[in-house]
Amino acid sequence: MIGLDTNVLVRFVTRDHQQQAESAMALFRQAERRGEQIRINAVVLCELVWALGGRSYGFDRHSIAAAVERLLEIPLFEVQERDLVRRTLDSYRRGNGDFADYYIGEQNRAAGCSDTVTFDRRLGASHLFTVITTGGQIA
Q1: 22: domain range?
Q2: Is residue 41 part of a domain?
Q3: pLDDT higher than threshold 70 for residue 64
Q4: pLDDT tens digits, 71-106
Q5: Is 87 within a domain?
Q6: pTM confidence score
Q7: What is the pLDDT of residues 110-134, one digit of tens each?
Q8: Number of structural domains, the chain?
């Protein structure tokens, strides 16, 4: 098994650099022929979402969520914590926070935390988070 860095996934998803996109596809085909899976670390997915939503690419939430969903459906890819990433993606689709925030919340919930406290009011509507004020009070 081999692991992917974020830039390989960015090229695969955006096809913004034709030669690198073709190299990524060739790598994927070779791995498939060998019966080898390719690992996608959850942190790489967080970076991918951040990159796609940034100034360079400007993907909207819907397009980003669709791209991540497609990656989750490709049998060649072994995605770290696939089920947790799916739950993260659901929260990301419904909420206003960042994908990485929801991933943190889902990880904490899976570890037994009742919630994750934050100062980020954008996350207040999520069942994963409790917003606190600067005085330490729960909002």
Answers
A1: 2-80
A2: yes
A3: yes
A4: 999 999 999 999 999 999 999 999 999 999 999 999
A5: no
A6: 0.90
A7: 999 999 999 999 998 999 999 997 7
A8: 1
